[in-house]
Design a protein that fits this description.
Layout (H helix, E strand, L loop, with lengths): L2 H10 L5 E5 L6 H14 L5 E6 L17 E2 L4 H10 L2 E5 L11 H6 L3 E6 L10 E4 L6 H11 L8 H14 L10 H12 L4 H9 L4 H12 L2 E3 L4 E6 L1 H6 L11 H5 L6 E8 L4 E8 L5 H8 L3 E2 L3 E6 L3 H11 L4 H5 L2
Parallel strand pairs: 1-2, 1-4, 2-3, 4-5, 5-6, 8-9
Antiparallel strand pairs: 7-8, 9-10, 10-12, 11-12
Helix pairs in contact: 2-5, 2-6, 5-6, 6-7, 6-8
Length: 339
């Protein structure tokens, strides 16, 4: 983001505006943390701000400060569309293409509002008036911190904002163990701790609130784990029947894909989750080293993301999706075995 962009945004925000903040569909910790962090910053400038998510998000994120202000598009379509149509500014956070918002794609595309993108995924679409895109950043929450700092308002970051931003950085870095965690990330985290973010309390609320059924579902997922040693790949499947058996709730499979990647000598991990309501197989991919699951997903499963973390989907059955995945792997064996 250029100095000219920052000057333009500062001028834009110098008087109260009607602002809508939107994350991607099925928002995760980084999406909810960044939107609420930015929300709590902007309301200090006397702006009228609304956060609109395309749909619901995991229960373990519903304790975040100001979470109760979030509107869900799929449950409040008319209200949300009126707010989007009437907005002066729309911030799009943690995604860079409107199709990532599901059923909100059309209303966002048609809006005349000034659009500001803050995102760290690869290959952004060219829809925003102001674009802050940096694939080297650990998370969108880290970028929101830098955005506020670039505006000259870092002193306005309080415990509420710091807590929201810490959540997204922690979850998107796998508790600071992924390669995207830089010295700059730790510097930002240090600032958030100084502002009042309670790292121990946040970690407990995100990771240590498992239900008995969620742990049983994890056990089921691990029993389904398969290893393909010739491709240094591990994958997990979960059928709709298995999800139903353990009373699946949104967020219950968060992070499960990483168990496959933790197997000795494995550099590529995948999970395939059946979603009969949407009629798709949801796919999460993880890798170590330089093997790009972003490129793999874009090429074969209509998805994308980061080099080491990406998502995709399939309209085939669960069995046929896995068969397709296995059939593709041999052409990548050289790259996977060079990691």
């Amino acid at each position: 983001m250029t100095k000219q962009d920052i000057t333009g945004i500062k001028q834009l925000l110098s008087t109260p505006k009607k602002i809508v903040i939107v994350p991607h569909k099925n928002p995760d910790g980084d999406a909810i943390g960044s939107t609420l962090g930015l929300y709590n910053f902007l309301i200090k400038g006397n702006h009228k701000v609304k956060v609109i998510t395309p749909n619901d998000y995991p229960h373990f994120l519903k304790w975040l400060p100001s979470e109760d202000c979030i509107l869900k598009y799929d449950a409040n379509k008319t209200v949300c569309e009126d707010l989007i149509t009437d907005a002066d500014i729309i911030f799009t956070l943690d995604f860079n293409a409107f199709h990532r918002t599901g059923n909100m794609e059309s209303i966002l595309s048609e809006s005349d509002a000034i659009k500001i993108m803050i995102d760290h995924h690869q290959a952004p679409d060219d829809y925003a008036t102001y674009t802050f895109s940096d694939v080297s950043m650990s998370s969108t929450c880290e970028m929101v911190y830098h955005f506020i700092d670039m505006l000259g308002d870092a002193d306005s970051i309080d415990k509420t904002i710091a807590t929201c931003l810490y959540v997204g950085i922690m979850t998107d870095t796998g508790s600071f163990r992924f390669s995207s965690t830089s010295s700059q990330t730790h510097h930002v985290v240090a600032q958030l701790l100084e502002k009042g973010a309670n790292n121990s309390e946040i970690h407990n609320k995100i990771y240590d609130t498992n239900s008995y059924e969620r742990l049983q579902l994890l056990g089921c997922a691990l029993s389904n784990l398969k290893v393909l040693p010739e491709s240094r790949t591990a994958y997990i499947t979960l059928s709709q029947q298995e999800l139903n058996r353990f009373n699946y709730k949104k967020g219950d499979t968060e992070g499960v894909v990483n168990y496959g990647l933790s197997v000795n000598n494995i550099v590529f991990g995948a999970i395939f989750i059946e979603d009969r309501q949407e009629g798709i197989i949801k796919i999460s991919l993880r890798s170590k080293g330089d093997f790009s699951v972003n490129e793999f997903s874009r090429a074969h499963f209509n998805g994308g993301g980061h080099t080491n973390a990406a998502g995709g989907k399939s309209h085939l059955s669960l069995e046929d999706t896995v068969a397709k995945f296995i059939s593709i792997l041999p052409s990548y064996n050289k790259a996977l075995n060079n990691e």
